[in-house]
Design a protein that fits this description.
This protein has 323 residues and is mainly alpha-helical. 61% of the residues lie in helices and 4% in strands.
Length: 323
């Protein structure tokens, strides 16, 4: 028999921090990892494939690279099916579909990220102010939120893109020109999609503002701004991160809606959405016009939704058990 005095004491494994637990839960989420892999491949596609794109533009009688090649109108090569020269085929005016999906993807992703940032900023600020101050401020902000929820966001997006798209100046971001229609779509999507997030932030902060650490911050003389932005909002990061992730997918879909209707991004600026505009006329005769941009939209939205579901499960405080 083994002497009890010689038994090796059992050592408990070290406790993991909340962030380490969240990372472990996310890595064990199969669909989240699949979605992350899809997004990584798509980011490489829209970021680095443009460096390799080049072709001979017959009207200009020269070889072009990158975005210039994507906008080359070669009517002698219109509606060509996928081939070794044009891997994704060409559109109705002879532009290379592969090049346009690369540069259109950059604009679509930029629209999604920018609109999600506007959504998160508005939702976080309005929800936190309503919950922290309460009273008449809470009543006014929540009535505004409820009024915004009754307005169809797609209707506002169509009207705003139609009337304000040409009135805003173009800007340059990361070397790309964003026309006024792009800016209008970003602002309208962000301004019409913050309401649900504001309600979630408000509910979380209503429970947090009565906690002891908030009372201690007030006793130490912390200002309201410091309490809101340093103590309260960082403790609501989980819904903010999940909402931002899913907001990117929703913004890409919304841009595709209005662009498909011919009211979205205008001019030579390509997006996955406006590449679908007019493609319905060639559903059977030239399916490559809608198949490639449509597939990229599908993969992007699926990947973002999978990652969003994984983040929601990983950041759920009720999943704080040791794994």
């Amino acid at each position: 028999m083994t002497d009890s005095s010689t038994q090796i004491p059992q050592v408990n494994p070290p406790m993991l921090s909340p962030m380490a637990l969240a990372v472990r839960r996310f890595r064990k989420h199969t669909m989240a990892m699949v979605g992350l892999g899809i997004l990584v491949l798509l980011i490489f596609y829209v970021s680095f494939a443009g460096m390799l794109l080049r072709g001979y533009c017959v009207p200009l009688k020269q070889e072009l690279r990158g975005e210039a090649w994507a906008n080359c109108n070669d009517t002698g090569s219109k509606l060509l099916p996928p081939s070794s020269e044009h891997l994704f085929g060409t559109d109705v005016i002879g532009r290379d579909i592969l090049a346009r999906t690369v540069y259109g993807g950059q604009i679509s992703v930029l629209i999604g990220i920018s609109a999600a940032i506007v959504e998160v900023l508005l939702g976080a600020v309005i929800g936190s102010l309503a919950a922290y101050y309460g009273g008449w401020i809470d009543n006014i902000l929540m009535r505004i939120t409820e009024a915004m929820l009754t307005i169809p966001s797609l209707f506002l997006l169509i009207i705003g893109a139609r009337f304000f798209g040409n009135s805003l100046p173009s800007v340059y971001i990361l070397g790309r020109e964003l026309t006024g229609s792009v800016l209008a779509i970003v602002l309208i999507i962000g301004v019409t999609s913050w309401m649900y997030l504001a309600r979630i932030v408000r509910a979380n902060i209503l429970s947090l503002r009565e906690q002891d650490f908030i009372s201690a911050a007030r006793a130490l003389g912390a200002s309201d701004r410091r309490i809101i932005f340093v103590h309260l909002l960082p403790n609501t990061l989980a819904p903010l991160i999940v909402s931002a992730t899913l907001g990117v997918a929703a913004a890409i879909i919304s841009e595709a809606y209005v662009s498909f209707l011919g009211l979205g991004v205008q001019g030579a600026t390509a997006t996955w959405g406006n590449m679908l505009d007019g493609a319905y006329r060639y559903l059977e005769t030239a399916p490559w016009l809608w198949f490639f941009p449509g597939t990229l939209i599908l993969l992007t939205v699926l990947g973002i939704n999978f990652v969003g579901d994984g983040l929601r499960d990983a950041l759920d405080p009720r999943s704080g058990r040791r794994m």
